[in-house]
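User: Modeling request: complex.
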Amino acid sequence: MERKYEFSWDLLGDIGAGRPNLGNVTRVEVYRLMQFTFRDIIEKHVGVQETDEIFYEAGKLAGSAFYQHMITKNDDLNNFVNQLKAVMRELGMGILRVEQADMEKGELTLTVSEDLDCSGLPEQGYEICTYDEGFISALLENFSGKPFIVKEIDCWCTGDRTCRFSAKAVNP
Amino acid sequence: MINKDAQSILEYFKSLLNDLRVRAVPPENISDDDTFLEVEQTIKTIRAASAALGNGNLSHDIKGKGYVLGAMKSLQASLRNLTWITKTIASGDFSQRVHFLGDFSDAFNSMAEKLESSIHELEEARSHFEMVFQTIPDATVITKIADGTLMAYNRAFMEATKFSDDDLTVGSFNICDLYIERSQRETFIKKLETDGFVENLEFSFYGKENDKHIGLVSSKIIIIEGIPHTLSVIRDITELKVIEAKLKQSEERHRLLADNAEDVIWTMDLEGRFSYISPSVEKLRGYTVEEVMVQSQEEVLCPESLIHMQEGLARAIRSVQNDLPFQVFRGELEQPCKDGTTVWTEATVSGIYSEDGRFIGMLGVSRDISERKLMEEEIRRLSITDKLTQSFNRLKLDETLEQQFEWSKTNLSSFSIIILDIDHFKLVNDTYGHQVGDRVLIELVAVLNENVRSLDVVGRWGGKSF
Ligand SMILES: [Zn+2]
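Assistant: Request completed. Predicted assembly structure:
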């Protein structure tokens, strides 16, 4: 297939040069507006399950690129968590906390408070942070070299105050 | 006013929320209402979850949704995160910090920082101790007081005993096995327990090849993990002991020689003080060793000899200062005696050097040469004396004449000579014999001597000429 939109980090552009007055910040509404309108249209075209899969996959692509550009490679889990925590906070993506981590078993439980995607959303009765799931799984895969499946088990959209993700290595 | 059923539902919920054991029951006609069941379930979940959280049970699975349960899950997530962070810090990663938990964040983070700096200080102190321990030039060990188990040792200990790291298994090697006499260990422990320390206690121990060593041990009790240990520094004095014994032996031998010598043997330090004088000095000068030891140089030597000696020694010391060997001084010296007379000695002074080649003093041998001096005097006298008349002979007269010429030349003054001859002396010899002739000559010299000044010189020119 001929590609027109193949992602690369360069596509994010030179924001400093491009926005001398407005700078490198925008409002969360704008981000969410784009995400939920995309969801709407894609769902109409391909259905619910397919939409979730697309968002999970997009999240993975983003997570991988993010790891390559924002994280310094390191074998130490604590160091990785510290870096990730700091970057996510700095970029206003959310407050990351580790509840438990056992890299040998390949099991982690993470929470993200004040999540960029879902915090403050009206209760829907279902978890919506599929993009985040993909994002986290790619981060963990890049860090450990093993593929991870990440599932959001609690979400603002289900009435919780934080999003809680359970990550499990595919082949621990 | 509310109806009875509503009242009964409220009573039930009140009991659910407030009572340890729920006594109230819901009215039967509402027990399959969906909303009622949902609220009832939520309150039951809150009861169970808050009880679990209250008891510190963080693994309780909070099932259900909604604002209050969400907040409880959030609290549980925070507590689980704190547990994880605390475990991480406990495993030595001090970089973890807590954020967005109000005052608690600051309190926790400053605790983590304090812990980090304390651990850091401890670590520094430990490595400093380790460094000092390893670089102490004397053998140093830490052992258990109870049974002598070796807990730590340094390089110097290995060098002293020739044991390798493989031989010295920490925790099983026993220091008691090195004692040559077990009783020394007992004495050591006893002293340590009474005083809390031991200083320079001599003991003997084996090295790896059963070679015997003598050591001086200084020790203190230190408590490690509640168990009393000894920190002991051992100075190996084996070689020192051997040298000491040799030195003592050679010193004794030399002293024996010196003490019994006819000559006076003495040593002097760089300040000019005697450090040793052999007893023979008393025979030479009448002073005891103790008296001479405190005498000044002026009391030891007559003025001219003192100058002579000082010049010689100054030369010798100059050559030492120029890194040349001490120039042996040899000279004849006149020394005062206790009875007011003087005695002539010939002194030979050489340098004393330490083992590393430093000049540390002088060794002198003074020999009594008074007899030789007398003999020399006698020979001199005989060479210038006329045997018969005991007046000066031709040699002395020639010498004197020479001196007087020189003297008058430089002083531009004159002197007089009387040359006299005995007339008809042959007649005396022929008439009374040669023996009488000799007596005449002796008599004449006596007459002449009686009639000259002390400065004047009377001598026999030869035959009957004077
Ligand atoms: Zn969410």
